[in-house]
Amino acid sequence: MLEKRTGRMKVQVAVLLAMGLVGIAAWKSKTLQHSEFMETCDFEKLDGPDSEFCQGDLQVFYPELGDIGCTYIPKCHQYRKRITKEWRNPEIKYPQAEKNKNYVLIMADPDAPSRSEPKFRFWRHWLVIDIKGSDLRAGRLKGHVLTDYVRPTPPSRSGYHRYQFRLYEQPAYEAISLSPEEAASLGSWPLERFVEQFRLGSPVASTQFLTQHHND
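The chain above was modelled as a monomer; its predicted structure follows.
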């Protein structure tokens, strides 16, 4: 009889011990998740020549990040991974746009495949024409899309890439298009020649952000 009671007590102790271990594991998991959520995120502003590219008040909004103009995308909260794999095109806003004019938006990476060896510059990530100024002022990017939005995808170990946004005033009655060769490839795009061909002139506003591969 004593042996049976001893056996039952051992089983009860083992069950309680297992429950305690499960509780500790759950507590650690919740604590880890909480610490990750509470992790501070520093949004470092660009400086030097990189900051000089940012002209005017062109605003680029991604979820949770707000306006990322002239900043490094921080690694915390998996922001670099999410901008590459999850988030769709950002909201574009230009409060100074003239309501009765049309605009052209270009997003391009001049650092493909790397800033030290940009043999595929410019990599075209987005090209939209016929954007009404009234829509830009309201943050609604409507127009004729010549190149669908392509998420930033800097290769591993290629360092920081600049993702640049240029906004041009579109000349009246100018029929803007990509040649068949340009449309067939996103890389090695002659951006300057495109701008000159369609008489776009200098950007009325421009901004950029820098990011790198999310595992680097």
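The radius of gyration is 26 Å.
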